[in-house]
Amino acid sequence: MIIIEREVILYELFDLKKKYVKAIVSDEEIEIAKAIREFVNKEIMPRRKDLEGGWHRDEKLARETFKSLAHGLVKLGCQKCFLPREWGGDGISGTAWNLITAEIARGDLGLAMHFGILALSMMPAMLARRKDLFYKFGDKLLEDKPCTACVAITEHVGGANIEDLVQQGKAITTTARLDGNEWVINGAKIWPSGAGVADLCYVIICTVDPTKGDEGIALIYVPPDAKGVSFGKPIKKMGMSWTSINAEIFLENVRVPKEYRVAEPGEDAKILRDMIAYARLNTAANVTALAETVLEIVLDYTKDRRIIKKPVREYSLFAHILGDMTIAVETSRAYWLQVSWMFDHPEIYGRPGETANLARATAAKAYACDVAVGVTNKAMELMGSYGYSFELHIEKYLRDVKTAQLWLGGPQRERLDVALSHYSFKW
Q1: Architecture of the domain defined by 150-267
Q2: Which of 30, 46, 135, 375 has the most other CB atoms within 10 Å of its CB?
Q3: What is the pLDDT of residues 101-151, one digit of tens each?
């Protein structure tokens, strides 16, 4: 008999009020995270399997569950809290935002990413101080209805090379040509979350001329109903089956007003670097929280599982493994928190997209993903057949976190960005 729901045990290292350094996280921010945690524990945890549509991947069940849970999180302010106060948001810090999405990721990584992309889609407008773009594309975030956005970076041929900042946009094939007072966009994107379902906006990363390098990179907002935009079928994946809809985007002579470009030549490239840095750091926070949840599951399991009337976790072999898993989670959390605090203080450390800061965020993501994949895989081994059973969630966490490890460049690409913080090189 499989025990599906277990007794909730609060391990001190995972206590919300004790696991964060007070020099970095304020009491108010912890209270915000606590409110999200209570919702996650009450509403998301019991419905984790439904977010995939159950064992049979029922699309209707998955979409209804997602809509219901997203609506609950919107009511808690998750859709607007990252916006500046003067735009109607709460003006929370980047660290507070990472705490919020991390708590959501404890329940479902794809649901956390959904809200992360909303913030990422508004980041160009916020960084460029383009309030006009927010009112054109983001004012729905202030409503109580869940929204979906899409940030389209990756392409069919260039792949992760689009995120390769050394290439300075030379791998981008999606073009934008200025025709009078309009940009004419042509090209195709693949893999962006929200493709085909976004109702807020599409942020298209393109180039006006690949030979111009960073000066040619352009970030352009495109309305969801723009003429000339079409989509492929949703791509079936091993993880985040319905919480993240990925598809191809085709742009054929898409015309948008000139002012929909975010910034001037050169500045768009800097904003793109900032976006990638923020997204990688947010991923680090989310997958670390996922790893923590997995560790809680396996700690409970090895307490109940016995060998000769003794809990498995009391044997030195298993205790050693659990100790290593804990060390990994603790160090991963400590590092992403450090980088998050640095991002919140650009007056000291500079922009997030600057070489050293990008390396820090990238290192946080690469390390956190390695930790989360390793912890989840080891948990499955410790739990044996129960580990890969659908009922106990470990197999889903493993599928989801492996997906996260590969986005925004992937682990090999990321290590090159970290090395670039010490010396420059090209390939």
Answers
A1: Beta Barrel (2.40)
A2: 375
A3: 999 999 999 999 999 999 999 999 999 999 999 999 999 999 999 999 999
